[in-house]
Amino acid sequence: MMKTPRSSNSLTRRDALSSLAATTLCAAVSPSPAAAAQERRFRYSLNTATIMGQKLSVTEEVRIAGEAGYDGIEPWIRNIDAFTQGGGKLEELKRRIADRGLALPSAIGFMPWVVDDPDRRKQGLEEAKRCFDIVARLGGVRLAAPPTGATDVSGLSIAVMAERYRALLDLGDTFGVTPELEVWGFSKTLNRLGDAAAVVIESQHPRACVLADVYHLRKGGSGFEGVRVLSAESMPVFHVNDYPADIPPEKLADANRVYPGDGQAPLKTVFGMLRRIGFNGYLSLELFNREYWMQDPLEVARTGLRKMRAVAEAE
What are the residue ranges spanned by the domains of the chain? Predict the structure, then answer.
């Protein structure tokens, strides 16, 4: 039976953030030297938006991720759909991913799971079911869950969003796939890290987790200090990018994302926080830069990995 989150009358932001602090105190405990050394090793994934503009097939994206030296790949469901609609088999794609030595830590799909309209929400859960099945058959374990369909809506309470996220989590459990609550900085719903953390807490589910992104933390005004109070378990994937110094948050757009280290984001500080909380998940490069889309995709992937590692592994 699904646990019901507390009512919105008894839930406040202070309650949620107090609960967050209480449940993540362990993240502040210093690890042993051996454990600390092990935790310093980040894993790297290629979100295929980075080379989306080259209009590649998902099999080509897999090849490029492998040749560029990534540990994992984060594909988009719509490109997987194009592959299967053209006669490709998921079993074949799973084999290609494994043959390249890649993990599939996450995938990107869009389903209106949090909207008020019950019919649209039902359709969203059906789409989520379809996406969960695809991810599971490819050997993946997570699917991004952004606030699709509610980006122009404000006022949804933490309690209501938590109840709807819990329903999505329970559905994902039947496939062995966890939806990651994704922060979208441009949205009116779930545009801040604190709101996403509160929803994760109040969903009362052991695998509830946040999907944060350097660009979206800047765009939505969350800043980066909140990263240090999360636990590694609650944030298994982290989207990495950078942004120019001369563009204010309100004018920042996806196309402005640049390679890590080429902008003004405090990435060394962010990666330091991730180390301190014992983060051992995947740093996933997600760029939508139109200039990069005009370049050789393998070179873009290699450059992105090299620059991401240079900043992430800097002392």
Answer: 38-312
| Collapsed DSSP state (helix, strand, coil) of residue 287 | coil
pTM: 0.87
Residue by residue, DSSP assigns 26-93 as GGGSPPPHHHHHHHT--EEEEEGGGGGGG---HHHHHHHHHHHT-SEEE-BHHHHHHHHHTT--HHHH
pLDDT tens, position by position, 223-279: 999 999 999 999 999 999 999 999 999 999 999 999 999 999 999 999 999 999 999
**Second-level CATH architecture of 38-312:** Alpha-Beta Barrel (3.20)
CA atoms within 13 A on the CB side of 78: 8
- Contacts of 82 by beta carbon, 8 Å cutoff, 6+ apart: 57, 58
Cβ proximity of 70 and 99 under 8 Å: no
Q: Any idea which residue has 């994760």 for tokens?
A: 200
Reported as a single tens digit per residue, the pLDDT across 28-77 is 333 444 444 444 579 999 999 999 999 999 999 999 999 999 999 999 99
**Residue with tokens 């309209």, as numbered in its chain:** 117
